[in-house]
Each structure stands twice: as C-alpha cells, then as structure tokens.
Queue: 3 jobs
Job 1
Amino acid sequence: MEFIGVKSVGVVIITGTFTGMVLALQSYYGFRKFGAEGLVGTTVALSMTRELGPVLTSLMVTGRAGSAMAAELGTMRVTEQIDALIVMALNPIKYLVTPRVIASFFMLPVLTIVSDFVGIVGGWLVGVKLLGINEGAFINKMIKYLDLEDIYNGLVKAACFGVILSVVACYKGFYTRGGAEGVGRSTTESVVISSVSILIADYVLTSLMF
C-alpha cells in the first residue's frame, strides 16, 4: 500500500492539478462565447470526478507502480526465486500476487480522491484567480450540479482499474520467460495492456453507470 499509494501521491498531485487547470482554461474559452463562464466549475468537477480523475490516476500508477511490479516479479521468475518459494511449500500467488492486487484495489480510490481534489482546486485557481470568473457562480453551480453519485462512481471505477493494472502486471511478471530480455518485454507489455484495458473498461463502466 505504501509503494502503490503513498509513493504515487506526488505524481498524482501534479497530474490532477494541471489537468484541472487545463480543463478550466479550455472550457472557459468555450463557455465565454455563450456567456456561461459560471459553468466552468461544474465542467471541471464533473470531468475530474467522473472520468479524468480515476482514468489519469490509474494510467500514472500503471506507469509508475505497475511496471515496477511486472519487473520485480519477472526478475524473481528468471532468477528462480519463485521456484524456491514453491520448493518451500509456499503458494507464490498468495505470497506475491494477492497483496499487490489488494493494495491496488484499496489505494487507487484514495489516490483518485486526491486527484479529484487538487484538480478542482487547480480549476478554481485558473478560473477564479486567473480568468476572473465570479467565485460565487463558480462554486455554487459546481455544488448544484455535482452529485455524490458522480464521486462514488468515479471511485468504483478507480477500484476496478486498480484490480486491472495489478492483475495484468502480476500476470506478465509471474510468467516471464527469456532472462533479462524477457523481463523488459514483460514490463513493456504490462504497461501497454494495462493502459488499453483501463480505457476499454472505462467505456464499459461509464455506459453502465451514467
């Protein structure tokens, strides 16, 4: 949980903050044409909680922690450490894979909460402080249109994405073949497959939830 969650906080904060800032900047220029600048806060909040928070957080954790999990298990496989566990009558799945999957399942929603919060704060900084949107309209419309269900659904997505990225990373690492070259190949494949799977799962979950 420390490796997947705590050590990913920095990159998640940077990603979430600047995503919210860019969202506010782009939506402001669009809404300004219709005199609806007050909806910028709503757009940032809904986009972050429903989609960009869980998706971007999961993709960043995939690149940082998922690749490391695949490389670590792959190295253990090619150096026969996993075989040694089997010889000692230890279940390698229970010992190596299960903790990583459980940690990802619980830590991705926590990281998503952080990403949502800093993204909305970043949108507020750009919208209110930089572009001069009325602060009352920005906050009131955001509160009016943002439901707790939007936040909950985003956290459910994040938990699902956590399972996906950890299972894929552990599978590719656990069944690595071919020495050092195989470790590199498994690491690359785990990141690519996890990222694509997260985007596909995002569409499926969105179609079911909203």
Job 2
Amino acid sequence: MNSQKWENLIFKVEEKFGIKKEYKEQFKFAEKHDGEKIMGQKENIEFDGPLGLMRLEKISRPRIINKKVLSSKRIGGKVAVDFVYSDTDEVFEFNIYRKEEGEDKWVEVLPETMGIE
C-alpha cells in the first residue's frame, strides 16, 4: 500500500463511517551496531465499522538495501550484522484490527474472517 492508496482509504472510511480518532506515532524499528536508531512511523485511524470499533494501521519504515557482516577472525571476536537502509525508499505494511467488546484489547482482522479472498 502506498501513500496515495492510504489517503484514498482514509477518505472512503471517513465518507462511509466517520473517523473517531486519527493519530501518528514514531517507533524504533531497528538499531545499528553503533547505536544509531532507525525509526519507523505508524498511522492509525479508529472508526465504528461493521465489526464494531475498528482500527486501520499503516506502518512505514525504511527499505533494507544491503547487509554488512562485521566480524574479526580472532577467537572470541564479535560478529555483528549491520543493515543498510535507504534514505528515499520506504516499505509499507497495512493491518486491520477490531476492539474486543468489554475488553481493552485489539484483535487483528484477517481477510479470511471477513469473507474476502
């Protein structure tokens, strides 16, 4: 899912159900061996849908473009794998959740449970 499709989905949800809550949050996706943090972003939309209170979540993070193995040939030497992340390309992940009635718990909604194939 790219940004344009996400915006279209938000528009359709707002038009059909109305949006109760919309928020973004940063999260630490990975950490390099030198301590540099690689950040990702979650965008969440909550609305009253056909299965009750529902949440759409789009996770975006940098694309991994290479992998470096850092090691030494000495006995007891440390081995580390350092990933190289793109500055321009992103990877998107899309999830749908519904809130359990009477509980403060979100359950992932799978396409199979909605009758979508």
Job 3
Amino acid sequence: MKLVSFDVWNTLLDINVMLEELTRALAELTEKEVSEKVMEARGEIKGLRKSKRGNPEKALEESQEILAKKLGCDVEIIKRAAAKATLRVDERIVIKGAIEGLKAAKERSLIIITTGNVMFWPSAYTRLILERFGLADFIDKQFYSDELKAYKPMREVFLKPLEYFGVKPEEALHIGDTYAEDFEGALNAGLWAVWVNPDAEKVERIAEKGFVVRNAGELGEVLELV
C-alpha cells in the first residue's frame, strides 16, 4: 500500500454540522423555513449523480442552482449562506476517529489525500475547515470534484489523483461513508475500499478488496490486513 484516499464529509468532517449552519444562514437571508428544501435539493443532486445525469463540469454550480430554484432566491444567496456557514462551524464538525485515522496512515509513511465531492459550497471552503481544525496538517494533497471536473462514483475521480502520484489502483485505498459513491466507486476503479458504517459491529472484510469500519479511527486495523 502506498496511498490512502479519504472522503471528507461524514468521514473526516460532519456534514450535519455544516448543513445546520448553512440552513440557519439561509433562513436568516431568505426569512423562510428552508430545512425541507435543503434536504430535497440534496436528494435530487445525489439522484442526478448516481444516474450520471448531472454535469461533472459544473458540479458546484448545478447544485447551487438547484437549491436556489427550490428556495426561489438568487444563487448569490446560496453563496453567501455557504460562506457564513464556513465561518460559523465549530469543533463539533470533526468526526470521532478522524484524527486517529489520519495518524494511522501517516505513521505508515503513506501518501494521504482527500477525494471529495462538492455540493452547495466550493472545495475552497472545505479546505479552510480542514486547515482551521488541524486535519490538513496530515494531508499531502486534496482533490475535489469541482477541480477534477468529475465526481464520485466516476472512475476518473479516483484515478486522476493516483496518476498525479504515479500510484497504481491496487496500491491505493479509499475510505468513505457512502456505499455507492465511495465503496463501490473505489472498488470499480480498482482500488481497495473501506466503507465507514457507524452501524457496523466490528472491522470486517466484506469484499475481496473491501472492508467495513465504524469510523475512520479503525483504519489502522484495516491497514494491517492489506
């Protein structure tokens, strides 16, 4: 194993904390009840991407426009709310086990990257949050769908970062919380894969090159097995 790729949201950072602040900011800016519309927009976007009907070239813009349409507001309001949310999140956003997982990879001298999708806010904001709470100190390079012009589970979103480092798929492992996007996407691209499932009972092999863990902090146990 030469490289470990981490999904960000719900693997390292808690998406619910960010969405909570985004929803609060949107409510302030629109003076509307927006929670249900935000969840509807998320579901629609995930459906578009799963069916490959979304536009990888405009992954961020597309999601912002969908949310703006549901709220009946200008896209600028979505952008402002995302900025406010980024400024407001606190230490609750760091998921249990995140630092331990990053340390486990670092202790084995592995290349550490992020491979993340974007929705509603640009990858630059995710970078800021990772810096603010010290997670970026463990990461060698970050890759996101708005920069790669592709999104998980597309093969290229996993393979382009590996090409950058000259690493073969079988020499890399991706860990993430979404079964279709992260686990199946990584396996289909030829990588090893780890599914973060808080409901799992233990660290367990669930495919020839796939494992399940309860949180990223159990990554060290997986790395002993691959």
